[in-house]
Amino acid sequence: MSTLPAAPRLGPRAWTLLLALSLLWGGSFFFAQIALVGLPPLLVAWGRVASGAVFLLLMLRLAGQGLPCGGARWRRYAVMGLMNNALPFSLIFLGQRTLGANAAAILNATTPCFAVLLAHWTTPDERLTARRLGGTLLGAAGVALLVGLQALEGLGTRLGPVLLVLAAAFSYACAGLYGRRFRGEPPLATACGQVCCSTLWLLPATLLLERPWGLAFPGWSPLAAVAALGLFSTALAYRLYFRILALAGATNLLLVTLLIPPSAMALSALFLGKPVGPSEAAGFAVIALGLLLLDGRAFSRVRSPARPRSP
To answer: pLDDT per residue over 14-51, tens digit each?
Structure first.
């Protein structure tokens, strides 16, 4: 009787990269909130990927690498760019304009829940288990506790924006699974290819729907926020994204959405002097417990203590 291959495990290197990615993405909701004050959402999304593409092209040149060739590969980049950037960025920014950053962060944390369910039906090596589902749900509950359940008040009257952000989370989950096709390819070139395609995807919609040439000058703060989104939350982040995807698999990669809110709050505490209250501390603890459950090693040691050596 044949057995399915085991799902990739999260080793120390993968956890380190995952934490680094959460820090890079932790500021994205903050930067987006600043950018959306002076710019419409599709223009923010396009500015993010366009500036990210410029930074990635510079990184590629400095690394002595070139863009890959081949129509089949660029078709894969186009699909990845649509599901991983163009659609979710636009949907989140449209929803966040009404919901605010905190509620958007909570709803975005449903991404791993979608991922574990999709992976169970579409992959042979990332099957749904009680431990994996329980850890994901526990982590999502920790995010809600961390950000504050009051952020979810009134969501029933804002169903449209809620569905937009949930659709973005679903798109991220699909992209993580589709990204398995890029295993073995250089992470920097893959990141550059998908972000370049995302820029092309978003350009027509931005020009047709928002007509940016008629906008007044928004000020330097929104423009700086868009540049920060491009450099930190896109160029550097997606370089790590594809490294983690190859190292730890799609469902493990998407656990980063559970780490983004605590990373953002930790950055605020360190650099803005915002204290961490009891509910935030409890949220951190619940997220950590969920991640430990997903990792599995600590619980397996408790269930299977080391046997004493025979004399």
So the answer is: 889 999 998 898 878 778 888 988 999 999 999 999 99
- The pTM assigned to this predicted structure is 0.79
H-type alpha helices, the chain: 12-26, 28-38, 41-62, 71-81, 87-99, 101-108, 111-122, 130-147, 159-178, 187-210, 220-230, 237-248, 250-253, 256-271, 278-295, 297-303
Q: Please name which of 157, 170, 35, 171 lies closest in space to residue 93, comparing C-alpha atoms.
A: 35
Task: Please state, in angstroms and rounded to a whole number, the distance separating the CA atoms of residues 245 and 241.
Answer: 6
Residues in the chain, overall count: 311
Q: Taking a C-beta distance cutoff of 8 angstroms, is the pair 140, 198 a contact?
A: no
**Residue 194: pLDDT above 90?**
yes
What is the rounded CA–CA span in Å between residue 138 and residue 286? 7
Amino acid 46 reads: W
Give the torsion through C-alpha atoms of 76, 77, 79, 81, to 10 deg. 160
Q: Which residues contact 32 (CB under 8 A, 6 or more apart)?
A: 44, 92, 93, 96, 101, 225, 229
